[in-house]
Task: inverse folding
C-alpha cells in the first residue's frame, strides 16, 4: 500500500514526540500538515486553547484528516489535582474538535483520536485484543474509557473515527527512551519489580505507517491496538537496554524500592509495574506488516 499523498492534515497536540514524528512522516510524503498549538512558532502552527472554538476551525473545512494527540502526561503523582488535569486535557480537546467537525461545512473524511493500551487489565499471560481484551476499572483505565466514550459519542455521516490504543512507543528522538538509556548507563537498568510484567511496544516508524494505513483503509475504525505482535517481559526489556548502552552493571529495583523512588521523582509505580500484554489483532488481520516486529531487530534505537 502506498503512503497517502497530497492530503491536508490537521494535528492537535502535534508538538510532542508522536506529533513531531507524524508531522515529519506526512510532510516527507508530500502532504500539507497544520499543527494546533497553544504556542505557535512556525508557519504551520495555528493557535488554539484546546477548549473553545476559534479561528482555527477554518482549517477544519479544508482538512481531509484530523488527528488529536492531546493529553497531559501521566508521568506524575496521581493527586486529585493531577487526576482532574489528566482527564480534562483529554476530554476537552476531543469534544471541541468533535464539535468543530460537526459544525463544519466540509467535513474531513477521517478523525483519529489518541487513546491508550492501558485501558486493559494487568495481564502477564493473556494477550489483550480489541475483540476479547478485558477492560479494567481503575483510575487509568477509567480515564481511557471516558476518553473513548467522548470521542465515539457523536457519529457523523461520512466521517470515519478511529481511536489509537497506543502502547509504549520506541524512538530515539523523544519519549521515554533517552531517559531509560541514561538510567541504564548509570546502573539503574535492572528489572523493575519481579520483572514478569509484560511491556507492549511499537517502534515509532511502525506507529507512523500504521496511522497512514488506518487513514486509508475504510474497515480500520473503532478502537485499534498499536503494538508490536511480540511484547517482552520487563526483565528482557531492561536487559535489551543494558546491552545497547553497554551498561557496566545493573541494580535490580524491587517494588518497595520503586515506591520510594517514584515518590521522590513525583511519579507512580503503576507506569512500570502494570503488565500490558497487548496484541494488534485488527492490524494483523488487515495484513499490516511491522518493520520492527521484534525488539532484537531494532538496530537504530539510539543512533
Result:
Amino acid at each position: 500500500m502506498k503512503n497517502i499523498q497530497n492530503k491536508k492534515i490537521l494535528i492537535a497536540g502535534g508538538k510532542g514526540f508522536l506529533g513531531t514524528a507524524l508531522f515529519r512522516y506526512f510532510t516527507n510524503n508530500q502532504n500539507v500538515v497544520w499543527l494546533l498549538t497553544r504556542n505557535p512558532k512556525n508557519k504551520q502552527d495555528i493557535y488554539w486553547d484546546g477548549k473553545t472554538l476559534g479561528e482555527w476551525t477554518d482549517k477544519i473545512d479544508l482538512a481531509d484528516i484530523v488527528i488529536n494527540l492531546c493529553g497531559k502526561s501521566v508521568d506524575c503523582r496521581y493527586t486529585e489535582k493531577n487526576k482532574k488535569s489528566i482527564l480534562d486535557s483529554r476530554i476537552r480537546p476531543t469534544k471541541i474538535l468533535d464539535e468543530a467537525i460537526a459544525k463544519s461545512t466540509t467535513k474531513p473524511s477521517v478523525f483519529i483520536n489518541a487513546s491508550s493500551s492501558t485501558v486493559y487489565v494487568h495481564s502477564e499471560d493473556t494477550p489483550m485484543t480489541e475483540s476479547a481484551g478485558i477492560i479494567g476499572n481503575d483510575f487509568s483505565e477509567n480515564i481511557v474509557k471516558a476518553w473513548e466514550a467522548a470521542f465515539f459519542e457523536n457519529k457523523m455521516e461520512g466521517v470515519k473515527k478511529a481511536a489509537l490504543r497506543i502502547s509504549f512507543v520506541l524512538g530515539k528522538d523523544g519519549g521515554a527512551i533517552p531517559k531509560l538509556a541514561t538510567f541504564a548507563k548509570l546502573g539503574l537498568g535492572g528489572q523493575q519489580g519481579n520483572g514478569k510484567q509484560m511491556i507492549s511496544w511499537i517502534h515509532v516508524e511502525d506507529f507512523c505507517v500504521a496511522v497512514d494505513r488506518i487513514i486509508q483503509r475504510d474497515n480500520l475504525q473503532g478502537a485499534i491496538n498499536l503494538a508490536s505482535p511480540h511484547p517482552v517481559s520487563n526483565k528482557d526489556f531492561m536487559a535489551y537496554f543494558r546491552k545497547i548502552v553497554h551498561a557496566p552493571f545493573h541494580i535490580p529495583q524491587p517494588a518497595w524500592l520503586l515506591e520510594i523512588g517514584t515518590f521522590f521523582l513525583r511519579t507512580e509505580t503503576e507506569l512500570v509495574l502494570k503488565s500490558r500484554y497487548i496484541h494488534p489483532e485488527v492490524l494483523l488481520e488487515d495484513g499490516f506488516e511491522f518493520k520492527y516486529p521484534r525488539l532484537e531487530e531494532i538496530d537504530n534505537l539510539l543512533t
